[in-house]
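Archive entry. Fields below.
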Amino acid sequence: MKMVTAIIKPFKLDDVREALSEIGVQGVTVTEVKGFGRQKGHTELYRGAEYVVDFLPKVKMEIALKAELLDQAIEAISNAANTGKIGDGKIFVSDVEQTIRIRTGETGPEAL
Amino acid sequence: MEELTKVTGSVTELAYALDTFYFLISGALVMWMAAGFAMLEAGLVRSKSTTEILTKNITLFAVACIMYMLMGYSIMYPGDAGAGGWMPIFGDILGKADNEAAAVLASDGKTYYSNLSDFFFQVVFVATAMSVVSGAVAERMKLWSFLAFAVVFTGFIYPVEGFWKWGGGFLDAKGFNDFAGSGIVHMAGGAAALAGVLLLGARKGKYGPNGKVNPIPGANLPLATLGTFILWLGWFGFNGGSELKLSDVGEANAVALVFVNTNMAAAGGVIAALITARLMFGKADLTMALNGALAGLVAITAEPLTPAPGVATLIGAAGGVLVVFSIVFMDKIKIDDPVGAISVHGVVGMWGLLAVPLTNSDATFGAQIMGLATIFLWVFITSFIVWFILKMVVGIRVSEEEEYEGVDIGECGMEAYPEFVIK
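PREDICTED_STRUCTURE:
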């Protein structure tokens, strides 16, 4: 089992969710987050005074899936979230030791 | 002949009813400006200061009404006893009988509206002046100290300077002109606010070292915009009602001109402020456009009757340009005014007074400057003393911790948008 953590541009969320549904991913957890990378922040203006917004809004998606789905999922996210411009985000992959479905007590890949 | 007298009498009574109705409706429109101020201020402060600013706005309105009934109105309108004077006296106390029909008919047109409608129209003006103050001291002033100041301002400080002009006092005798209150209402509010802010200080974090200004963006620009539109609407009552009469062709035309000029000045103010902001900052700053609308309205308030509509637009536009420069300047000298009230009402109120002689041949720059200086100094000095006493006795500023957490929790114990917070 793998955990895919994808940081993407917020307006790409719907596209990515659809692409993941198409390959059979059944669940996603989404968080609104802020951060900075090479894109850096930008300046805004209020009543004549400039201020820097260091942290830009992004969406963090966490997707737990069976190992055999991993390559497809990475491809789906990469394609759907790509705009070709700086700030498209990153995908992190990690191992998942165990999964438990709370309602039934099932464990392992069956619980995903 | 008897028939004719009867018809004339009925027409006179009808005109009395119409003028009274016009007064009341105008007053109701001005009352609605309190809603405009509340929304504008709620929009331009941070969300953690929303409940408190709303509490201030509705309570100051109530305080103004009660204080004006108890003493303000009788100080401001002492009747013939105060003619040409400067020392306030208590005139007619509210609650005496209103006009009898026979007396109205016998007055030959001199008595043409209900006394109580006059009180109602005047009471909403004092509330407007007080509303100007609340925005400037937002997010850091103690609620109860603010309300204590409101008691003195609406019961005494404002009625005294109002008496000097509108109550027939010495400024009126000297030929000072202020149609609906660029000076008496708006600049007075601005002067009281300035005195308060000087003693109160800026919000924590607003000004950094080396002259750095850290913007504190308003939480809700849709509310600020709605508030500005409400004020714009209410201003038709503010200026239109100040014609005081509607019931003949000449007066009806005058009222129409006042409405048109009031509207045009606001439009001129928006465009001028927006273009000025775009040229100065490189972006179209909405908050400046909103302040521009109000600046145009304040500018035309001293004389909305003599300019042609095109000229009224220019008077408003000049106010719109002035307000942007004034707001930037206030930040430079570290006077923190979250909504720009001191610039909009104080600085542009002065411009409104000085613009009167441009179109009104009865007005002189000398009389306008004297009135401006008298009202400003009176309100500024008395307000400063009251704020200072409050500061010494009970304090006017919340603790740093409370300011950081937000005055909503500290003063009112509730948040304006509680469901947005993870508990």
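CURATOR_NOTE: The mean pLDDT of chain A is 93.
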